[in-house]
Amino acid sequence: MPKIGMEPIRRRALIDAAISAIGERGALNVTMSDIAGRAGVSTALAHHYFGGKDDLLFETMRHILSKLGEEIRPAIAPVSGTERVRAIIAVNLSTDQFRPEIIAAWLAFYVEARRDAALGRLFRIYVRRLHSDLMSGLAHLPHASAIRTARGIAALIDGLYLRRALGEGVEDSATAISLVEDYLDMALARHPSHRSLPHA
Fold it and tell me: How far is residue 159's CA from residue 12's CA, in Å, rounded to a whole number?
């Protein structure tokens, strides 16, 4: 019988264990037994809290996206224009987000989102939210250019994650941020009269 008040702690421990296991294996070929062992609970209890591995992966990715949102909101609140876009880039590719185990979880997310309807919906929410956040900082550009730039930045962020998950590409957060900022600067250079807005 699960102890009263322990569920949130154990659910979080299982999510952390799932991130760790996927990061170590670099893939989804982990079992609920492996994850439960890392979390210090029984496999039966892991199934009690999450049902199955698909449910646990969904909650793991929802947790990662929630933490990302918690970091982005205060980062962009005091700034606008180009500085808001730079803040979004910096948070998405921060040292905390660009850790190997988080990157591995994202790779699993990209793959499984095509197969699992719930993960697919979660992925689309992430895509729309990132696009909306970027557009809020690119509103000073002509609309078509803002859309093009937002899509380019989003593709670079996802691409950097995918390449790193596969053992290619840049290894550190600072270089990843610099690469995306270079793209932003080139996009802004095409519209010199619209380069930025003052801080909010």
Answer: 28
Q: Does the pLDDT at position 116 exceed 70?
A: yes
Closest C-alpha to 168, from 177, 176, 150, 113:
176
Residue 145 lies in a domain: yes
Can you tell me which residue has the tokens 């990061």? 23
Give me the pLDDT at residue 107, please: 85
For residue 132, what are the domain limits?
Answer: 53-194
pTM of the model: 0.85
Among 94, 76, 114, residue whose Cα is nearest residue 160: 94
Rounded average pLDDT over 30-56? 88
Sign of the Cα torsion 190, 175, 155, 128 reads negative
| 116-119, Cβ contacts within 8 angstroms, sequence gap of 24 or more | 116/54, 116/57, 116/58, 118/54, 118/58, 119/57, 119/58, 119/61
Distance CA 146, CA 112 (A): 30
Is the residue at 166 inside a domain?
yes
CA 173/CA 151 separation, integer angstroms: 20
